[in-house]
Amino acid sequence: MRLILAEPFKTLWAGRDAFAEVEALQGQVYRELEARRTLRTEVDGRGYFVKIHRGIGWAEIAKNLLTAKAPVLGAGQEWRALERLHQAGVPTMTAVAYGERGANPATQHSFIITEELAPTISLEDLTASWPTEPPAPGLKRALIAEVAGMTGTMHRAGVNHRDCYICHFLLHTDRPLAAGSLKLSLIDLHRAQTRSSVPTRWRDKDLAGLHYSSLDIGLTRRDRLRFLKTYFQRPLRDILRDEAPLLRRLERKAGALQQRKQRHGDAL
Q: What is the CATH number of the domain that holds 73?
């Protein structure tokens, strides 16, 4: 068993079974599955997000492996990813409680509690109006640089997200919305993988997620080139030469997605 508690849960659960206590927490439930529960709760007026994993069973593990998917076995993946990101200086959530018990990966009981990041808005919500109400050029360039820098640092630290979409980048709204004052935080790392280095396959999947999730917000080719230059930290000429297979794949899939959306729109 592994149990790490910081305040307020260190005091709140002193002398108690933390695994029973976390199951008893009440609040707004965001996801309720047989093997996983996610909710927001409050303690002493402060918000926390709670993720509880109850083991996915051998059948689900086998199904994931047979389809070449890496199964999420518990809260440990997110805990390790958060530790690595904090060490690398990537702004993200702060965990205040983590527990894991049971050696059997199919039935392991685990949880992680993180401090709520507020007030914030996701980049998906922030950019929803950009196609009709373009942002100031300086703000757009600053946000692109922040996302590219955070993603590049994350990958160089050996972490790949697996759900790397703009909705998982939160902009802190208690700061001026201007270049030089922005702060983003990366969230939802329960599927993240942590290694000594990120394989190209998983790096590219994260980059594809960012590319696809930003297709409809009015970014130009120049905007995307700015992202690449900041992400790779190399001259653009070298990136266009060395990463040509990745860039062709992104463009092909982006074109296919746009055609599919157009067909569905025409059918309505």
A: 3.30.200
Instruction: Based on the fold, state whether residues 100 and 220 are members of the same structural domain.
Output: no
- Cα(80)–Cα(83) distance, rounded to whole angstroms? 5
Question: Do 127 and 111 fall within a single domain?
Answer: no
- Mean of pLDDT values over 28-43: 90
Phi, psi dihedrals of residue 90, rounded to the nearest 5°: -90, 120
The CA distance from 259 to 268, in Å, is 14
pLDDT at residue 62, as a whole number: 59
pLDDT above 70 for 238: yes
At residue 72, what is the residue type?
A: V
Model pTM? 0.90
Q: Examine the domain organization and report whether 15 and 62 are in the same domain.
A: yes
**266 catalytic, yes or no?**
no
Instruction: Looking at the structure, tell me whether residues 87 and 150 fall in a common domain.
Output: no
To which residue do tokens 């982006």 refer? Answer: 254
CB 110 within 8 A of CB 53: yes
Catalytic residue selected from 17, 44, 125, 163: 163
Q: How many domains does one find in the chain? A: 2
Using one digit for the tens of pLDDT, what is the confidence trace for 91-109? Answer: 999 999 999 998 777 678 9
Structure tokens belonging to residue 255:
């074109």
Domain carrying residue 65:
2-115
Helices (H), 49-129: 57-66, 76-88, 123-126
The residues near 49 (Cβ < 8 Å, ≥ 6 apart) are 38, 39, 40, 93, 113, 114, 116
CB 162 within 8 A of CB 206: yes
Pairing of β 193-194 and β 159-160: antiparallel
Q: pLDDT tens across 61-72, in order?
A: 555 555 556 666
Residue 189 to residues 4, 159, 213, Cα–Cα distance (Å)? 18, 10, 17
